[in-house]
Amino acid sequence: MNKKEEETTTKKPEIVKPNELRILFGFEGVNSINDLVTNGIIEPVLIKERGRDVRRYDKDACTTEYIKYLRAKASRRESPHPIGAANDEARKLKADADWREAKAEIEKMKRDELNGRLHSSEDVKAVVGRLVTQIRGELLAFPGTCAMDCATARTPKEVEGILKRNVLEVLKDLEKFQYNKAEYKKRVRERTDWMNERGGEDDG
User: Pairing between strand 15-16 and 52-58?
Assistant: First the structure.
């Protein structure tokens, strides 16, 4: 077995959530993914998350099966006629081209994510969530921070100035938040390593 064959054999599946598969297939809602499962077109995989079994999907395998389904569906719609063989060949060539295009798009998305040009919703939510937690903490501390100064203020104007000064401090902290490409890349690699480890456990 040559090196290329070994890499192909040991390649771990990319496991995705239903919503990611929905976007890839161009569906409006996740129910369309459930319909594909119900009709036996694609199969989910069960993985443990936070102590419970959840449905996830092998992106490459599901894409392959979905393309096969579309190819068969298109064939059934065509009525038999003298040049049916030629049409079948044309459909096969188109399906193969669509498959290669889909594979290329998947690989491009993987590269874009690793290079920081594409971010998963989970990573964005985690990074922005940390900022929200920080600002929430500062806002909750706001009354205590202002209380002593306001208590000694002699006029409403002085109270206004105290409140304004503290609000500006919170806004300054918010302005310090910057896009960190390295942090996103780190999250992608950690998630990829975790998926590979899960794949190894399942193989064992």
Answer: antiparallel
pTM of structure: 0.36
CA distance 149 to 161: 10
Tell me the pLDDT tens digit for each residue of 140-196: 888 888 888 888 888 999 999 989 988 888 888 777 776 666 776 776 677 666 555
Domains of the chain, start order: 3-118 (1.10.1660), 121-196 (no CATH)
Helix (H) or strand (E) holding 154: none
3-state secondary structure the chain: CCHHHHHHHHCCCCEECHHHHHHHHCCCCCHHHHHHHHCCCCCCEEEEECCEEEEEEEHHHHHHHHHHHHHHHHHHHCCCCCCHHHHHHHHHHHHHHHHHHHHHHHHHHHHHHHCCCCCCHHHHHHHHHHHHHHHHHHHHHHHHHHHHHHHHCCCHHHHHHHHHHHHHHHHHHHHCCCCCHHHHHHHHHHHHHHHHHHHHHHHC
Q: For the chain, what's the residue count?
A: 204
55: CB partners within 8 A, 6+ apart: 18, 44, 45, 46
